[in-house]
Amino acid sequence: MSVKQLFDLTGKVAIVTGGSRGLGLQMAEALGEMGAKLAITARKADELAAARTHLERQGVEVLAVTNDLSKFDEIPGLVDRVLDRYGRIDILVNNAGATWGAPAEDYPFDAWIKVIDLNVNGMFFLTREVGKRAFIPQKSGKVIVTASIAGLRGNPPDIQTIAYNTSKGAAVNFVRALAAEWGKYNINVNAICPGFFPSKMSNGLMERLGDQIIADTALGRVGGDEDLKGAVVFLASEASRHVTGHALIVDGGSSCF
Questions:
Q1: For labeling, which of 4, 49, 168, 191 is most exposed (least CB within 10 Å)?
Q2: pLDDT per residue as tens digits for the range 15-27
Protein backbone atom coordinates (compact mmCIF):
# COMPACT_ATOMS: atom_id res chain seq x y z
CA MET A 1 0.00 0.00 0.00
CA SER A 2 1.39 3.41 -0.97
CA VAL A 3 1.72 6.27 1.51
CA LYS A 4 -1.08 8.11 -0.29
CA GLN A 5 -3.32 5.08 0.12
CA LEU A 6 -2.48 4.85 3.81
CA PHE A 7 -3.81 8.37 4.37
CA ASP A 8 -6.80 8.07 2.02
CA LEU A 9 -10.21 8.18 3.76
CA THR A 10 -12.42 7.73 0.70
CA GLY A 11 -15.65 5.97 1.67
CA LYS A 12 -15.07 6.28 5.42
CA VAL A 13 -17.72 7.81 7.66
CA ALA A 14 -16.62 10.16 10.44
CA ILE A 15 -18.54 11.70 13.33
CA VAL A 16 -17.06 14.95 14.63
CA THR A 17 -18.66 16.30 17.80
CA GLY A 18 -18.37 20.02 18.38
CA GLY A 19 -17.87 20.16 14.62
CA SER A 20 -19.49 23.51 13.92
CA ARG A 21 -16.51 25.77 14.66
CA GLY A 22 -12.96 25.99 15.98
CA LEU A 23 -10.89 22.85 16.27
CA GLY A 24 -13.83 20.60 15.41
CA LEU A 25 -14.51 22.34 12.13
CA GLN A 26 -10.81 22.34 11.28
CA MET A 27 -10.65 18.58 11.81
CA ALA A 28 -13.88 18.03 9.88
CA GLU A 29 -12.41 19.96 6.94
CA ALA A 30 -9.33 17.73 6.97
CA LEU A 31 -11.27 14.47 7.11
CA GLY A 32 -13.62 15.62 4.38
CA GLU A 33 -10.76 16.70 2.14
CA MET A 34 -9.27 13.23 2.44
CA GLY A 35 -12.52 11.64 1.27
CA ALA A 36 -14.54 10.95 4.41
CA LYS A 37 -18.29 11.45 4.62
CA LEU A 38 -19.09 13.53 7.68
CA ALA A 39 -21.62 13.72 10.47
CA ILE A 40 -21.05 16.87 12.51
CA THR A 41 -22.81 17.65 15.77
CA ALA A 42 -23.17 20.73 17.94
CA ARG A 43 -25.70 22.35 20.25
CA LYS A 44 -26.37 25.50 18.22
CA ALA A 45 -28.37 24.87 15.06
CA ASP A 46 -27.35 28.11 13.34
CA GLU A 47 -23.62 27.48 13.75
CA LEU A 48 -24.11 23.90 12.64
CA ALA A 49 -25.96 24.95 9.51
CA ALA A 50 -23.22 27.43 8.63
CA ALA A 51 -20.57 24.73 9.07
CA ARG A 52 -22.49 22.29 6.89
CA THR A 53 -22.78 24.89 4.12
CA HIS A 54 -19.07 25.66 4.41
CA LEU A 55 -18.11 21.99 4.13
CA GLU A 56 -20.55 21.24 1.32
CA ARG A 57 -19.02 24.07 -0.71
CA GLN A 58 -15.77 22.13 -0.45
CA GLY A 59 -17.47 19.10 -1.98
CA VAL A 60 -17.89 17.14 1.25
CA GLU A 61 -21.00 15.08 2.03
CA VAL A 62 -22.29 16.24 5.43
CA LEU A 63 -25.01 15.24 7.86
CA ALA A 64 -25.55 17.91 10.53
CA VAL A 65 -27.20 16.80 13.79
CA THR A 66 -28.12 19.28 16.50
CA ASN A 67 -27.24 17.53 19.74
CA ASP A 68 -26.23 18.21 23.35
CA LEU A 69 -23.94 15.41 24.51
CA SER A 70 -24.56 16.27 28.14
CA LYS A 71 -28.11 14.98 27.57
CA PHE A 72 -27.10 11.35 27.64
CA ASP A 73 -30.50 9.98 26.63
CA GLU A 74 -30.13 11.70 23.23
CA ILE A 75 -26.92 9.87 22.33
CA PRO A 76 -28.51 6.69 20.91
CA GLY A 77 -30.66 8.85 18.64
CA LEU A 78 -27.57 10.63 17.33
CA VAL A 79 -25.99 7.31 16.42
CA ASP A 80 -29.29 6.22 14.82
CA ARG A 81 -29.23 9.29 12.57
CA VAL A 82 -25.70 8.58 11.36
CA LEU A 83 -26.32 4.87 10.75
CA ASP A 84 -29.62 5.59 8.98
CA ARG A 85 -27.84 8.01 6.63
CA TYR A 86 -24.59 6.19 5.95
CA GLY A 87 -25.04 2.60 7.13
CA ARG A 88 -21.71 2.54 8.99
CA ILE A 89 -19.32 4.58 11.15
CA ASP A 90 -15.55 4.32 10.81
CA ILE A 91 -14.16 7.30 12.73
CA LEU A 92 -15.35 9.02 15.90
CA VAL A 93 -13.78 12.34 16.84
CA ASN A 94 -14.81 13.24 20.39
CA ASN A 95 -14.16 16.97 20.24
CA ALA A 96 -17.10 18.65 22.01
CA GLY A 97 -15.99 20.27 25.24
CA ALA A 98 -16.49 22.99 27.79
CA THR A 99 -14.44 24.88 30.34
CA TRP A 100 -15.00 27.20 33.30
CA GLY A 101 -12.57 29.38 35.20
CA ALA A 102 -12.68 29.84 38.98
CA PRO A 103 -10.39 29.27 41.99
CA ALA A 104 -10.59 25.67 43.19
CA GLU A 105 -11.79 26.68 46.65
CA ASP A 106 -14.70 28.63 45.15
CA TYR A 107 -15.44 26.41 42.16
CA PRO A 108 -19.22 26.24 41.60
CA PHE A 109 -20.83 22.83 41.84
CA ASP A 110 -22.90 23.37 38.69
CA ALA A 111 -19.81 24.43 36.72
CA TRP A 112 -17.89 21.32 37.77
CA ILE A 113 -20.79 19.06 36.77
CA LYS A 114 -21.20 20.84 33.40
CA VAL A 115 -17.55 20.39 32.45
CA ILE A 116 -17.27 16.78 33.61
CA ASP A 117 -20.61 15.77 32.06
CA LEU A 118 -19.64 17.02 28.60
CA ASN A 119 -15.89 16.40 28.57
CA VAL A 120 -15.90 12.98 30.24
CA ASN A 121 -19.34 11.43 30.58
CA GLY A 122 -20.71 12.46 27.18
CA MET A 123 -17.47 11.36 25.53
CA PHE A 124 -17.69 7.94 27.15
CA PHE A 125 -21.38 7.29 26.47
CA LEU A 126 -21.07 8.27 22.79
CA THR A 127 -17.94 6.14 22.35
CA ARG A 128 -19.65 3.21 24.05
CA GLU A 129 -22.65 3.53 21.75
CA VAL A 130 -20.59 3.79 18.57
CA GLY A 131 -18.34 0.99 19.73
CA LYS A 132 -21.01 -1.59 20.42
CA ARG A 133 -23.20 -0.69 17.43
CA ALA A 134 -20.58 -0.04 14.75
CA PHE A 135 -16.91 -0.57 15.56
CA ILE A 136 -17.06 -3.90 17.41
CA PRO A 137 -19.45 -5.60 14.94
CA GLN A 138 -17.35 -4.52 11.95
CA LYS A 139 -14.05 -5.28 13.75
CA SER A 140 -12.56 -1.88 12.94
CA GLY A 141 -12.77 1.73 14.03
CA LYS A 142 -10.84 4.83 14.98
CA VAL A 143 -11.63 6.68 18.22
CA ILE A 144 -9.96 10.08 18.48
CA VAL A 145 -10.35 12.28 21.56
CA THR A 146 -9.50 15.97 21.69
CA ALA A 147 -7.71 16.10 25.02
CA SER A 148 -5.27 18.93 25.84
CA ILE A 149 -1.83 19.62 27.22
CA ALA A 150 -3.90 20.77 30.23
CA GLY A 151 -4.53 17.06 30.82
CA LEU A 152 -0.81 16.37 31.13
CA ARG A 153 0.20 18.99 33.68
CA GLY A 154 -1.02 21.70 36.03
CA ASN A 155 -1.45 25.37 35.23
CA PRO A 156 0.39 28.55 36.09
CA PRO A 157 -1.29 30.05 39.19
CA ASP A 158 -3.15 32.67 37.14
CA ILE A 159 -5.00 30.04 35.06
CA GLN A 160 -7.68 28.47 37.25
CA THR A 161 -9.47 25.75 35.27
CA ILE A 162 -9.30 22.73 37.55
CA ALA A 163 -12.38 20.98 36.14
CA TYR A 164 -11.08 21.32 32.58
CA ASN A 165 -7.63 20.01 33.51
CA THR A 166 -9.20 17.14 35.42
CA SER A 167 -11.47 16.23 32.51
CA LYS A 168 -8.62 16.29 30.00
CA GLY A 169 -6.44 14.17 32.28
CA ALA A 170 -9.32 11.71 32.37
CA ALA A 171 -9.49 11.81 28.56
CA VAL A 172 -5.81 10.92 28.25
CA ASN A 173 -6.16 7.88 30.50
CA PHE A 174 -9.49 7.01 28.89
CA VAL A 175 -7.73 6.37 25.58
CA ARG A 176 -5.11 4.18 27.26
CA ALA A 177 -7.68 2.07 29.07
CA LEU A 178 -10.02 1.74 26.10
CA ALA A 179 -7.17 1.00 23.70
CA ALA A 180 -6.22 -1.94 25.90
CA GLU A 181 -9.80 -3.25 25.97
CA TRP A 182 -10.71 -2.74 22.32
CA GLY A 183 -7.45 -3.67 20.64
CA LYS A 184 -8.78 -7.21 20.17
CA TYR A 185 -11.48 -5.72 17.92
CA ASN A 186 -8.94 -3.91 15.71
CA ILE A 187 -10.06 -0.55 17.11
CA ASN A 188 -7.50 2.22 17.57
CA VAL A 189 -8.08 4.70 20.41
CA ASN A 190 -5.91 7.82 20.59
CA ALA A 191 -5.91 11.40 21.82
CA ILE A 192 -4.74 14.69 20.37
CA CYS A 193 -3.42 17.11 23.01
CA PRO A 194 -3.50 20.63 21.53
CA GLY A 195 -1.77 23.56 23.13
CA PHE A 196 -3.22 27.04 22.76
CA PHE A 197 -5.31 27.62 19.64
CA PRO A 198 -7.48 30.72 19.14
CA SER A 199 -11.07 29.65 19.75
CA LYS A 200 -14.23 30.81 21.44
CA MET A 201 -13.25 28.71 24.46
CA SER A 202 -9.73 30.15 24.75
CA ASN A 203 -10.36 33.78 23.75
CA GLY A 204 -10.53 35.09 27.30
CA LEU A 205 -7.20 33.53 28.23
CA MET A 206 -5.57 34.66 25.01
CA GLU A 207 -6.66 38.27 25.56
CA ARG A 208 -5.28 38.23 29.09
CA LEU A 209 -2.16 36.10 28.72
CA GLY A 210 -1.54 35.77 24.98
CA ASP A 211 1.90 37.43 24.96
CA GLN A 212 3.14 35.23 27.80
CA ILE A 213 1.72 32.08 26.20
CA ILE A 214 3.56 32.82 22.96
CA ALA A 215 6.77 33.61 24.83
CA ASP A 216 6.53 30.24 26.60
CA THR A 217 6.10 28.31 23.34
CA ALA A 218 9.20 26.99 21.56
CA LEU A 219 7.92 27.90 18.07
CA GLY A 220 6.84 31.35 19.25
CA ARG A 221 3.24 31.14 18.08
CA VAL A 222 -0.13 29.64 18.92
CA GLY A 223 -1.87 27.01 16.83
CA GLY A 224 -3.36 27.99 13.50
CA ASP A 225 -6.23 26.99 11.23
CA GLU A 226 -4.36 24.03 9.71
CA ASP A 227 -2.21 22.80 12.59
CA LEU A 228 -4.49 19.93 13.68
CA LYS A 229 -5.34 18.70 10.19
CA GLY A 230 -2.36 16.42 9.73
CA ALA A 231 -2.70 14.96 13.20
CA VAL A 232 -6.37 14.04 12.85
CA VAL A 233 -5.92 12.56 9.37
CA PHE A 234 -3.00 10.47 10.63
CA LEU A 235 -4.99 9.09 13.57
CA ALA A 236 -8.12 8.52 11.44
CA SER A 237 -6.33 6.69 8.65
CA GLU A 238 -4.52 3.41 8.09
CA ALA A 239 -1.26 5.32 8.50
CA SER A 240 -1.76 4.96 12.27
CA ARG A 241 -2.94 1.36 12.28
CA HIS A 242 -0.13 0.36 14.70
CA VAL A 243 -0.68 3.35 17.01
CA THR A 244 -3.13 3.07 19.90
CA GLY A 245 -3.38 4.35 23.45
CA HIS A 246 -1.28 7.37 22.46
CA ALA A 247 -1.62 11.07 23.31
CA LEU A 248 -0.22 13.13 20.43
CA ILE A 249 0.91 16.58 21.60
CA VAL A 250 0.35 19.44 19.14
CA ASP A 251 1.40 22.51 21.10
CA GLY A 252 4.22 24.27 19.27
CA GLY A 253 6.62 23.11 21.95
CA SER A 254 5.01 24.75 24.97
CA SER A 255 5.43 21.49 26.88
CA CYS A 256 9.19 21.54 26.25
CA PHE A 257 9.70 23.89 29.21
A1: 4
A2: 999 999 999 999 9
